[in-house]
Amino acid sequence: MNKRGLLFAMISLALFGCASNKKPVDSKGLQVSENGRFLTEDGKPFFWLGDTGWLLFNKTTREQADQYLEDRKQKGFNVVQVMVLHSVPSVNIYGDSSLVNGDISKPKITEGSSFADSTQYDFWDHIDYVVDKAKEKGIYMAMVPVWGTNVKNKKVSLEQAKIYAEFLAKRYKDKSNIIWLNGGDIKGSEGAKVWEMIGSTLQANDPNHLVTFHPRGRTGSSEWFHDAKWLDFNMAQSGHRRYDQDTSAKEKWHYGEDNWKYIEKDYNLKVVKPTIDAEPSYEGIPQGLHDVKQPRWKDADVRRYGYWSVFAGAFGYTYGDNSVMQFYNPASKEAAAYGATKSWQEALNDPGAGQMLYLKNLMLSRNAYLDRVPDQSLIVGAVGGDGEKYNRLMATKGEDYIFVYTYTGRNIPLKMGVLPGDQVKASWFSPGDGKTTPIGDVENKGTHQFDPPGEEKNGNDWVLIVDKI
Known about the structure:
The chain is an alpha/beta fold.
């Protein structure tokens, strides 16, 4: 190769070698940022603050859906993860069935759309109503076409999957607030051809909506589909188990409660794509999920998962609540899943739900959001000095600021001189109430030991903020 050819090859590699498979669309709507790390909405930074409203389409009336969406809007959520078909077929609260004879390739559609006339208002009209209502409130609907167990149980053939995905794509391609979550709590290796068919069909027929894959607990979509052209961003489900409950910990890519490791793994892949923990432990759910006698995950736990994953490089975070995700109604005859005891309406106000907005606001509070990077080298003594399990410190920085999260309120040994200036401004941010307490100006050289307020214990979490003066 001559020198000119070599130079061209080097330039091409620099420009395209680490590029993501972003869709070639304009700056309007929701899309992957130019650097492949984040999402943007109409060209501006978009922090995904999701809620798992899995059974919203099935278990709520129109009025109840309004109530739920308005509450989530007020709490700062801008994405709701929801199942289209939880089962094959699915039936909603009005008794409307989704399919003809349980055939996923034959959606049960009626002419017209009149709620006053039950013969016209069908299962799909109800979904349309909720999607449109969410749009009014600035909320994206991240929709799972068909939950994974149905594919695992051979209820969806390859041909049926193609026809069904085409139906969904054509019905919702003009709805601006749609995100597609292929899969649904399943390994990508189980029914891989079906997932590939759904993903590629959605992309071909609905190219302006982002597509990802919602995986099985303690796995991530990148294990199977990172290089798939239809996968716009990666999604992990860190799951609901404690460190000592993760019996699959010896398997590759299983990390117990260390959800930041899923993000770190995806962040370092050669093809750059955004990544997120879209199902960590839910507030109010038993630790380990299935034994209702176990302790329940609390607000401090969901905060920890949020700050750990976002500071590790995630573009957002999804919160979940045990009662809300299943829209549990104690007055109904249906048994509660995972030991839920309170109604979903009461659980809307569980403390963790209200605290998620503080994370979103913090991340959007600084300039150059799209240039933020994780950086554990800021912690003096890393690797190793940044701590294990609950003592883990997570650091991230932008051009003019540094954030460091501690779940236990442990001492933070910070490397100074990273930001410009002889001095920097330091403060403490409380993830529990969103309040900021000034520390003052600090000399910007050497190592500075920052001691958070309160005693060192689990749940005494703080974010150290260091800003350029």
